Amino acid sequence: MTESTSSDQLSPYDDHRRPLKRALRLGAMGLVVVTIASLAIWGGVRGTPGLLGVLVGAAIGGGFVLFTAASVLLTARTTPSTTMAVVLGGWLLKVVILIMVLLLIKDLEFYDTMALFVTVICALAVTLGTEVWGVVTSNVTYVS
């Protein structure tokens, strides 16, 4: 039997996916905070249409940013060209889905448009900001 020495074991800081995992976790937490705050504000100001606008806005704004980080994480162990193909394909898919969703809801009146707009902007900013913070402040090994 071979004994495992401390040099054989990998440190969690050796995982190059660590910053992406942290970015996804912090981004999701930021999105939850923005969604809850927006639900409280817009629900009080505009009622049910405000609540529905917030839910649609949070799904669009935060979900799309998190989808990009998740696609990079899922392809982190592949070649750079595969990762780029998945990211670009995901971007195209997100644009098509966004256009379809906006075309479907543009004439509907079940949601408040201002709540949707403000929540999309806030969700994008907070989710992207927390993801960047998660990547920049994560500890990883540069030299092995």
Question: Can you describe this structure?
Answer:
With 144 residues, this protein is an all-alpha fold. It has one domain. It contains four helices and no strands.
Number of helices: 4
Series of secondary-structure elements, N-terminal to C-terminal: HHHH
Strand content: under 5%
Structural class: mainly alpha
Number of domains: 1
Radius of gyration: 19 Å
Q: What shape does the CA trace take? A: flat
β-strand number: 0
Helix content: over 70%
Keywords: Membrane, Transmembrane, Transmembrane helix
Structure characteristics:
144 residues; mainly alpha; 4 helices; flat; transmembrane helix
Please provide a brief summary of the model.
By secondary structure, the protein is mainly α.
What's the topology here?
Layout: H1 18-46, H2 48-74, H3 80-105, H4 113-136
